[in-house]
Write a structure and sequence with these properties.
Layout lengths: L1 H17 L3 H12 L4 H6 L10 H37 L18 H14 L4 E2 L5 E3 H4 L19 E3 L2 E3 L5 H9 L4 E10 L10 E11 L4 H16 L5 E6 L4 E10 L19 E10 L1 H7 L7 E8 H9 L12 H4 L3
Parallel strand pairs: 1-5
Antiparallel strand pairs: 2-4, 3-4, 5-6, 6-10, 7-8, 8-9, 9-10
The structure holds 3,4-dihydroxyphenylalanine.
The site of 3,4-dihydroxyphenylalanine (DAH) has 13 residues, from strand 8, strand 9 and strand 10.
Length: 341
Amino acid sequence: MLDQLEALGGKALNEVQAATSLDSLEQVRISVLGKKGGLSEVLKGLGSVPATERPKIGAVANEWKRKIEEAMALKKASLEGAALDQEIRSQRIDITLPSRFSHRGALHPITTTTRKIAEVFGRLGFDVMTGPEAETDFLNFEAVNIPKDHPARDMQDTFFLGPGVVLRTHTSAVQMRALRSREWPVRILCPGAVYRCDQDATHSPMFHQVEGLWVDRHVKMSDLKGVLEFFARELFGAETRIRLRPSYFPFVEPGAEVDVSCFQCGTSPKHECRVCKGTGWLEILGAGMVHPKLFEVAGYDPREVTGFAFGMGVERIAMLLHRIPDLRLMFQGDVRFLGQF
Ligand code: DAH
């Protein structure tokens, strides 16, 4: 039996050494030390051994068991270490590799243009004020002197949301909010989205405007002209001139359309100029002196204060500044277009 134990132990130690994985090591443990393993099998024969011999055999068996367990523990530790090494090696990150190209975002030209406009007027003391896009019929139309059945309502095809509520057709709707919520002097700039039921190459159902309003004692038409001239030069260059053409807007009297000299042609308009189409001028906004009716609605005394207002389309300004040929490019979200800004 001692020979048997010797053979079993030697073989087991070899198998432990030869194990290449934790699994195969466990197989060795079961086959040698398990309940039905080789050691138990050998010890079954203990009954036929003289009683005096038994303790010795038992001691030898225990000694083998201890040796095998010790060898297994060592092997297990080394296999686990190797497995960990392998795992670390497979997950190793080479920090010297160049990184993957990442997309860099940019602000939309409508955003940058709005910010630029607000920055220029900010230097003249205009605060930014915003209003809701879903607006009452009253503030969008009635309060700015466009009563029901007034033909001027046809100038702006309206989206109606419900009784008395519209998607604002212009940022002029914020004017009355400003006048009603503030004491004069009022000097505000209202940027935001506006909506009209209209869509083709030059019209979008949603676009952006910036409204300006300055109400104070002794505000004159010449102040309007000076402010707009400053604005035009800051935006389009120091050489820029402006001109006012009489026009009609219900909320101002007198009203004007304002043109800037073509920054492409300079002082001499060129026939072939694609920016101004040979006219030398570019229309950029509407403006005028605040109609006394608006002061009455707001509870101001029109004999005490005067004011001017103006409104411009942000897309139009952005298209002029960046020579963007088609309005629709602004809303398609094509990164090839947006990536240029
Ligand atoms: N609200 C006008 C529009 O949407 C633009 C405008 C014109 C605003 C004249 C004004 C103004 O404040 O005085 O077409």
